[in-house]
Design brief:
This protein folds into two domains: 190 residues, Glycogen Phosphorylase B (Rossmann fold, 3-Layer(aba) Sandwich); 180 residues, Rossmann fold. The strands form two sheets. It has a seven-stranded parallel beta sheet, covered by helices on one side. 43% of the residues are buried. β1, α1 and β2 form a beta-alpha-beta unit. It is α/β, with parallel strands linked by helices and 389 residues long. It contains 15 helices and 13 strands. The N and C termini lie close together (11 Å).
Length: 389
Amino acid sequence: MKKILIVSQEIQKQFYDVMEQALEGIAQIDIITANKVKNDIWKAPDYHAESLKTRFISWMNFFLFMQRWRRKNKKGRKYDLIFVSSNPPINIWIGLRLKKDFQAPVIFTHWDIYPQAIECSIDHYLSHIVCKLWRRWNHLNYKKYDLMLANGPAEAELIEQSVQCPIRIKAMPFGVDTRLLKPLKKEENIFCIENGLTEKFVVLYSGTMGIGHNIEIVLKAARKLEKIEDILFVFVGQGVKRQLVEKYVARYPNKNVRLFPFQSVEKYVFSMACGDVAIVAQNAENSMIAYPSKAFSFMACGEALVGIGGDDGDLKRLICTYDVGVYVENNDASDLAEKIFRLYQDKELVRKYRENARKTAEEVMDIRIVKEKYRELFLNYLGGDTDEQ
């Protein structure tokens, strides 16, 4: 049986499971990660995302760990394929070292795009110098990879344009488990029942409230709609911008915004399905480099999408291509409020968006479909003697 090495400081259990199923009968997996995705892993240093400082320290610890691992293992092991993620970003360099060490093809997947992610969040002359050098390095080295993966077509286009030289790149989205996440009637949803949401038109924001998420525009829209008692904005999650929601709730108590922490595993499927519509809010600067994977979860739950971002990107393309909701550009809170109000009034339109969302999740984004795409991809690089042959 062939062998594949996966290198990712952080990796979601669901994504690893998709990889494992895609490789069943094709290859055995060795994985270097900080996450306990299976019993036998090479335990990497933990990733701490609390601040830029903790992230940098985490990345450096991982880099040093990988240097030690390479020295110890490059002569005693053989791999037929290496799969490397952009977490941490130094993996873009590590991947090429592993390619040389093991003389094996390497696939690099961009979960984040660097240095663009830095350029969008840090405005400092030193970061400008670092990013300029980083872009130059990318231009010289991206073409050395056997294949690069992007989360969506807009990201793939951005990566191609950024290096100005031919590279092998393919859009390969995240999947969603449509058997786990599915539509639930509010009167049968324990999260709705316990929190008094059954009679409300729920506008849901669930997930990280981070620097790249436009929480401000959502709160401005909520303020404009506060007199519509049936419309309730529900925030579920954590992050540096959670304090903005906390301040809003404190200033306007008992109004139209409710705030909850991330829910337990048992309640997650219920909280994710509590919305009539669900918001995916990106800063305009991040629209081309941040993939809206959370949107897939909302769509699996049959929720209409309200997208917020720039004039292009995978989120806008997703909504327009599959007709699953509305999209707001130019940081326009009035436009956002108007579109939410229209959805509140037009039940037939919301029904159409919700049906389209669920149908698209089942037919395009389900993890079983994504698994088969990865299986086909791996067979192209591994081939040879597998259990299937």
